[in-house]
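Q: Give me the 3D complex with zinc ion.
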Amino acid sequence: MRCPYCRGDDSRVVDSREVEEGQAIRRRRSCSACGRRFTTIEELVLSVVKRSGVTEPFSREKVVRGVRRACQGRPVQEDALQQLAHKVEEAIRSSGMAELPSHEVGLAILGPLRELDEVAYLRFASVYRAYSSVEDFEKEIADLRAAREAEPVGEVADTGSSGE
Ligand SMILES: [Zn+2]
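A: Here is the predicted complex, encoded as structure tokens.
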């Protein structure tokens, strides 16, 4: 890393600390040539391995694009897409893997997308899981219904309110 003042290419680290919960390291450096100080940030890069074997950095924007396509015409706000992408990234980072196959990214998208919008979820899943027949959709919809029924619905907690 060259000094931003004199372009000298030699510096020493005077301080380093972890930031973003250990996902990045911030280093304070002192240029050996001019003595001025500057800061560098070293970040853990999540790599996605595509089916072709090519590796590329994980991109939240790419997740948003993929999900946005599935959400066309659905009442889903841009905010919600950003939040979903954030959730996906968190899930991937917390898995502790530095490199993961692209289908794992798709897998991490399915859960939060199902909560966001069921139609968009079906669209996304149909591409991702390469549904080949109406039966595949029927099965997925049956699963959706089952999951919905398994959730407790609107039970109002008894607050044991005032006696007399
Ligand atoms: Zn310098």
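A quick observation: The pocket of zinc ion is lined by residues 3, 5-6, 8, 31, 33-34, 36 (CB under 6 Å).
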